[in-house]
Amino acid sequence: METTKVLNTKELPFCKGCGHHLIAQNTAKAIEDLGIHVLDVIFVTDIGCHGIIDKSLNTHTVHGLHGRSVALGAGISMGLPPHKKVIVFIGDGGATIGLQHILEAARLNVNLTVVVHNNFLYGMTGGQLSGLTPKGFNTIITPNGSPYGEHDICAIVHAAGANYVSRVIGIGDYSETIKKALTTPGFSLVEVMEICPSYGVKFNPKRKLQEIVEAANKPIKTWTNNREPFQFAERKTVSNLFDKTPVIEPLHKEKKLNKQIQVVLSGSAGEGVQLAANILCKAAVKHGYNITQKGTYPVTVGVGFSNAEVNISPDEILFHGLSNPEYVIVTSQDGLDFSKGTIKQMQPHQWLLIDNSLPIPETNAQVLSFDFRGKGAKNAVLASLFFFARLSDIIETDTLKSILEEMGMHEKFPFTIIEQELNELTLKQ
Ligand code: SF4
Questions:
Q1: Whose CA, among 158, 339, 400, 427, lies 20 to 30 Å from 30?
Q2: Residue 165: how many other CB atoms lie within 10 Å
Q3: What residue's CA is closest to ligand 1, atom 5?
């Protein structure tokens, strides 16, 4: 990606006059002025109007559960070298829900910048009060003014040990404050005071932002500490967690794929779906491709479906989401139930490989049935990879076989039967 622009659009998705526009623009300006590459930036957001910024960003983005973005961001930051900038956008509602996460990240002084969009209410759900709603501020459930005192998030985060904390009025250019937060090692937080035109102004029609902030006795100022930023003990010997990632040497085989494709493995939990996806990824890497793998399964990891999405590409993969898989491989009824919707959308140039005990679902894809489960429930998904390899010609069955041997999984695997079936398949073709 060549762009140095953080925002990919001037049309941000917020209501007219919403201060979230300015937060996004000021943060973008700070990053660009500092010359930080957009792919060195990871924005973490969560539920709330602020979180719909994701699609407008050219950086990496991660969207989490309500109030959990600081915990997510802290975890991401802990696994990355310090030149990567993890920035959390969170609302006052999320900051209330996840206050303990914020305090822990400040206490540990994790390298992280949190920008609190404090418009004094939950905007996305209609204007309810949060823990940062000033006393006396009207919300939909306190139309005569909140009777409760609010948290002073800057004061408590500073007390918890953050190296840089600043409160600004969210009007005009405050990018210098965000720059300072981004360049201070350790935990930083900027609380941007704003007012939601759709609910805050509606419920408090005659009040100005500045006056609300002053009445709440919230000083516009900066607090600092000078503590050591968080470091894993093992960072003394390892510069980042990726250093521990095993290196797979490519086999220097000819690459047959000239564009990114997506492969879905859908089966049952406990039947090795994620492991098989991992083996597929290793094989693809051995053939010189880039890969991503994403697993989805219920919290009860031993029952129900298990689904793996694998991207394989000759080029760098910048988006790993699933949109339109070229191959869907289904090995059990659980997998079929889970992937039915995706399969229904498939088109004639795409392939469904399905266990022959299952009904053929509605689809326009080309369908091939094989006896995957006949190799044993635990071998079904692995077996399907050999049929995928033969059909797609992207990886070789020998590569899969060598990986199973390296992993010590070859002795119980029915290679002979599979080779026989693949030979018959070749003859039929
Ligand atoms: S509802 Fe309020 S906070 Fe949400 S986008 Fe609209 S103005 Fe902004």
A1: 158
A2: 27
A3: 14
Judge whether 227 and 109 are in contact, CB under 8 Å: yes
DSSP assignments along 398-410, one per residue:
HHHHHHHHHTT-S
Structure-block tokens of residue 42: 């990871």
Are 152 and 51 in the same domain?
yes
Please tell me whether residues 227 and 280 are part of one structural domain.
no
Residue 198 Cβ contacting ligand 1 at under 6 Å: yes
Print pLDDT tens along the chain (429 aa): 567 999 999 999 999 999 999 999 999 999 999 999 999 999 999 999 999 999 999 999 999 999 999 999 999 999 898 889 999 999 999 999 999 999 999 999 999 999 999 999 999 999 999 999 999 999 999 999 999 999 999 999 999 999 999 999 999 999 999 999 999 999 999 999 999 999 999 999 999 999 999 999 999 999 999 999 998 765 555 566 666 677 888 887 778 899 999 999 999 999 999 999 999 999 999 999 999 999 998 876 678 999 999 999 999 998 777 778 999 999 999 999 999 999 999 999 999 999 999 999 999 999 999 999 999 999 999 999 999 999 999 999 999 999 999 999 888 889 889 989 988 876 665
Using the atom order of ligand 1, give the atom closest to the CA of residue 199: 2
For residue 209, give the nearest of 198, 194, 197, 222 by alpha carbon. 194
| 57 plus 159 within the same structural domain | yes
Q: Is residue 20 lining ligand 1, measured as CB closer than 6 Å?
A: yes
Please choose, from the candidates 152, 82, 134, 79, the residue with its C-alpha nearest in 3D space to the C-alpha of residue 113: 82
Decide if 12 is inside a domain: no
Length of the chain (residues): 429
User: In which domain, by residue range, is 267 found?
Assistant: 261-428
> Domains in the chain: how many in total?
2
CA-proximal residue: ligand 1, atom 1 (nearest): 123
Q: What does the alpha-carbon distance between residue 47 and residue 252 come to, in Å, rounded to a whole number? A: 45
How remote is the CA of residue 196 from the centroid of ligand 1, in Å? 5
Of 3, 40, 6, 47, give the one whose Cα is nearest residue 23. Answer: 6
Query: From the DSSP assignment, how many helices (H) and strands (E) are in the chain?
Result: 13, 15
